[in-house]
């Protein structure tokens, strides 16, 4: 009997010691880079599986009508004067300086706290570090981005002239990948699955899309810059974007399990396309 009691005491001590050990952080440095293959189902996306666009749509879900503008394709602002999402003849590009850089002036709302500013500036740096586009605080420039914590995450397409609002709501839009996504819209890029050649690379499952949002899946007349289709683009919709019943709305082909979209920031091809569009010489 005494030996049984002693054994129980030892086991209890071991369990207590194990319970008090620190739990290893399973997310690690590359939390946002880990992607698991999911079967098509009606399960709700886990936070770690969400792409930048998934989060944008979550934040913008209850976005009300904005004065003078409408929101198309989930997060592209269009003025009532300019009803179409287009950039004919590259007329909406930011100008290139004589030194070879493209400077995009901006002002940042004082309503953002320090962490918000770091997140937004990280989104800028993720683009600037791999391209000739440089985001610079505005001094006297007539055309500039006015980055504000309005309701929702959205941007106009390309340079529209004058003060141009880019909304990054806090805290909902405070992912550097979301910031980079909206900055790429401001540079003139539409969503990747809106490319004119997208039907060669993805299948749009029309029956799974909420009827009121079918228009968000229309193709655009795009300059594809002789670049490959990029399933990993930060500009790509997630697999379940605008799903009515939890089923997939976009299926890659030929491999339906290819991950699409992400939240880490611009992909290598995203940066390449910026360099091609702006003739960065890289």
How would you sum up this structure, described in words?
By secondary structure, the chain is an alpha/beta fold. The model is unreliable at 14-44 (pLDDT under 50). 23% of the residues lie in helices and 15% in strands. The chain has a domain at 52-192: Collagenase (Catalytic Domain). The protein is globular. The strands form 2 sheets. The protein has a 7-stranded mixed β-sheet with strand order 1-2-6-7-5-3-4. Strands 8-9 form a two-stranded antiparallel sheet. Strand 3, helix 3 (114-128) and strand 4 form a beta-alpha-beta unit. The chain is built from 5 helices and 9 strands; from the N terminus they run ααβββαββββαββα. The longest helix is centred in the first third of the chain and has 19 residues, at 2-20.
């Amino acid at each position: 009997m005494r030996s049984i009691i002693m054994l129980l005491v030892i086991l209890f001590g071991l369990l207590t010691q194990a319970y008090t050990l620190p739990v290893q952080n399973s997310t690690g440095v590359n939390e946002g880079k880990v992607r698991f293959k999911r079967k098509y189902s009606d399960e709700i996306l886990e936070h770690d599986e969400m792409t930048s666009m998934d989060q944008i749509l979550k934040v913008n879900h209850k976005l009300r009508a904005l004065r003078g503008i409408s929101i198309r394709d989930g997060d592209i602002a269009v003025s009532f004067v300019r009803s179409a999402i287009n950039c004919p003849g590259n007329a909406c590009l930011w100008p290139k300086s004589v030194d070879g850089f493209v400077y995009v002036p901006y002002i940042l709302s004082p309503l953002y706290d320090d962490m918000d500013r770091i997140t937004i500036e990280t989104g800028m740096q993720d683009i600037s570090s791999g391209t000739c586009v440089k985001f610079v605080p505005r001094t006297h420039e007539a055309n500039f981005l006015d980055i504000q914590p309005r309701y929702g995450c959205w941007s106009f397409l390309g340079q529209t002239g004058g003060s141009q609002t880019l909304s990054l709501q806090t805290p909902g839009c405070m992912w550097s990948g979301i910031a980079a996504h909206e900055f790429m819209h401001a540079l003139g890029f539409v969503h990747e699955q809106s490319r004119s050649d997208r039907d060669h690379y993805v299948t749009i499952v029309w029956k799974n899309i909420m009827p009121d949002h079918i228009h968000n899946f229309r193709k655009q007349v795009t300059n594809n810059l002789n670049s490959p289709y990029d399933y990993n683009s930060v500009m790509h919709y997630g697999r379940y974007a605008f799903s009515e019943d939890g089923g997939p709305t976009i299926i890659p082909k030929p491999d339906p399990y290819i991950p699409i979209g992400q939240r880490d920031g611009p992909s290598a091809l995203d940066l390449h396309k910026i360099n091609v569009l702006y003739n960065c010489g890289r």
